[in-house]
């Protein structure tokens, strides 16, 4: 399937009621009322995986979530900074780079998130794991880090191809990660609606990156937004609701969600994106 046939190649010129992936023959008409928006439309069987339809690059992202002991935050951050420097010194061998590193300022406190990009997919991840395991220096850093954390979680993600690619932002910003747990079987439906909905969120360049899980907690989606501050976040979100079509995107995606939560993030001093 070429890129023109994928859900991820979308344009604001597409009529807002059009469907991008084959669905059941039942159509939602404008006069169906609010109840019709609560019905999750089914996706017809396909011989191509949903991951291939939503993400078109051989790039895998690793999202590390660390819950830090409250009395060890500074020591933890220094340890992780040294780990980042180690990885950067072996970038050509590892094939990975840090996209962003943040601590949570609103939400799950004493928590850090680190997002890594592996160009070359799971093959690069396999090779990197071997190198990390065989490096005494890296093992020593991980052992030390164990003294500073209460728990850890790792997810491997793919990027939605219709989202920005997470390029570094200059200046001083805050980030918001909105995490969704979707109903199984609804990922394509989510992608269809958000590919259109994202066109209403371009005015302030707030969209940073969007991902969906491959390994770890499944049917998880993470949308990352960038704002100057909390007031800018408020103003941007309020202005979005004045855009015709945004309310429809929300109406069609809310029924797909099992659970959602958001966290406000602040970049660490060693984060590539600020």
From TrEMBL:
Family in the record: Belongs to the NipSnap family.
Gene3D superfamilies associated with the record: 3.30.70.100
Name recorded for this polypeptide: NIPSNAP domain-containing protein
SUPFAM superfamilies according to UniProt: Dimeric alpha+beta barrel
Gene Ontology BP term (one): mitophagy
Domain of life of the native organism: Eukaryota
Organism of origin: Euphydryas editha (Edith's checkerspot)
One GO cellular component term noted in the UniProt record for this chain: mitochondrion
InterPro entries: Dimeric_a/b-barrel (IPR011008), NIPSNAP (IPR012577), NipSnap_domain (IPR051557)
Pfam families assigned: NIPSNAP (PF07978)
Segments forming domain NIPSNAP: 61-162, 175-272
